[in-house]
TrEMBL record, chains A, B:
Residues 63-147 form the GHMP kinase N-terminal domain. The keyword Amino-acid biosynthesis applies. Transmembrane segments: none annotated. Pathway: Amino-acid biosynthesis; L-threonine biosynthesis; L-threonine from L-aspartate: step 4/5. Its EC number is 2.7.1.39. This is Homoserine kinase. InterPro entries: GHMP_kinase_C_dom (IPR013750), GHMP_kinase_C_sf (IPR036554), GHMP_kinase_N_dom (IPR006204), Homoserine_kinase (IPR000870), Ribosomal_Su5_D2-typ_SF (IPR020568), Ribsml_uS5_D2-typ_fold_subgr (IPR014721). Residues 218-285 form the GHMP kinase C-terminal domain. Keywords: Amino-acid biosynthesis, ATP-binding, Cytoplasm, Kinase, Nucleotide-binding, Threonine biosynthesis, Transferase.
Amino acid sequence: MKQIKIFSPATVANVSCGFDCLGFAVNNLGDTMTFTKTSNKGVKITGIKGANLPYDSEKNVASAVTLLMLEKHPVDFGIDISIEKGYAPGSGLGSSAASAAGAAFAINELLNRPFTQLELTKFAMYGEKIACGSAIADNVAAAIYGGFILVQQYEPLSIVKIPVPKELMLVAIHPQVKVRTKDAREVLPEKVLLTDAVTQWANVGGLISGLYSENYEVIANSLKDIIVEPVRKHLIPHFDLVKEVAINSGALSAGISGSGPTIFALCKGEEIAKNVYDAIENSYKDKGIDFTMVYSKINTEGVKILEQN
Amino acid sequence: MKQIKIFSPATVANVSCGFDCLGFAVNNLGDTMTFTKTSNKGVKITGIKGANLPYDSEKNVASAVTLLMLEKHPVDFGIDISIEKGYAPGSGLGSSAASAAGAAFAINELLNRPFTQLELTKFAMYGEKIACGSAIADNVAAAIYGGFILVQQYEPLSIVKIPVPKELMLVAIHPQVKVRTKDAREVLPEKVLLTDAVTQWANVGGLISGLYSENYEVIANSLKDIIVEPVRKHLIPHFDLVKEVAINSGALSAGISGSGPTIFALCKGEEIAKNVYDAIENSYKDKGIDFTMVYSKINTEGVKILEQN
């Protein structure tokens, strides 16, 4: 193989009660990336469309991940990388994770698959570290594995793939405001009430059970975050309104995607998802804030090959 | 039907990371209870074997639950109740819950099943309130539903039944020491670190996933309690030793049953469970503390009818 073109999906992390451990991948939104073997050694970013990202190989997430992989698996060729960002960085939909996971997956293909999915996740986590300072796994694992993933533990890393109920749909709105990672972190409490923690982990248990059993009522009951959402929602204009509108038009629930500002809603079936989409759009259009929206099935396959030759 | 004799299982609550929300029922340990219709109205405890429990109908858990049910569903007959406790109260294996759940189930049968399992759980929770001051659901729900149950939320009560992996076995040791509920509560921290809470709920997610997917490795990885066990284990003599011995002889993990003093270990398969049983027994027999042990499959059917006529 000389060249591979892949699609790497956007991802929703911090799925309500599953703060810092539960994520899922999105079908209709992501990065398209092309990786080409070259006779000159070295890793080069040859083009970036759709976002203002670094060309420096050490600083660009995709090339940084590639360099790390080639350290572990040296080769006698170079690699050119071109990236088409399908959505804006800073949305809370795992933009850096899509690039990092896409690079890890594609390089593994170019090298004839020396690495496992778990190893690819670890390489991609290095990309997250470059991008945002900490090697978080939930977005990159969701992009690599597809579907819902649980980061069950970090040391050693254990990723558990959770089934996706067939009719589950995502609606998301990205208000064009900036939520600084620093602000999103600073509002987090250092400690929480044990009783609140119990409520939250009972909901995590319920959510995982609902996903396995395709019990949408249990999913809806469990999609709650009583710990992080209450302190972060103020960073996102009209969060409460969007959540209320989503639930009133039939969504199972809604929450903050990653650390925002994107708000996601999960729905049972296309018809309800369309209603929720329209209702959220209507509720937001007079707010004086630009926004984009997405409507999508849950991506179950993760990063995928578009072309190879 | 004039008379019904039932078996109501012992239960393990606070299953490691699932503190205050996850429980399961035990096959080989529980109460045998007989409920007989009488022509004199009123509810009477006619016999109690195996434990020193109140005969006062308002104070005995089984009759108190019966009285509450008859308030909601008046009848023109009375009920005599006799109880054979199969194991000691105060063990941490849901002794009061077994009596409460047994009564709720049996009375529902005598009344021709007017109530749902969820309603029976609520009646039995009243028994828990009588016995220990708070209407907790995890033991009684496990006894009524059988298998693993998750108390997903209290308001309104939502009980989720979780599948039981076929080879899962329980080994438990009950050291004959008293852990006062008051002491077990007082050591609980009011607040916990958010990072610890995240670790705990990722384990809850992993445990539920492992139970659905029969993935014993994920179950073993997730059966951890970094919040409650560290502060409660000092109330149970040689807890660390028993846990270490259990894991070293092949148990998936071990933890505190309820608020103790019983220590439970979960194992994959009978052979390992027997090894774990022997190893725990050997480790404890020179400690100068009397103890009983149990070895059992997980009970998947809940309270069951032994005889009716």
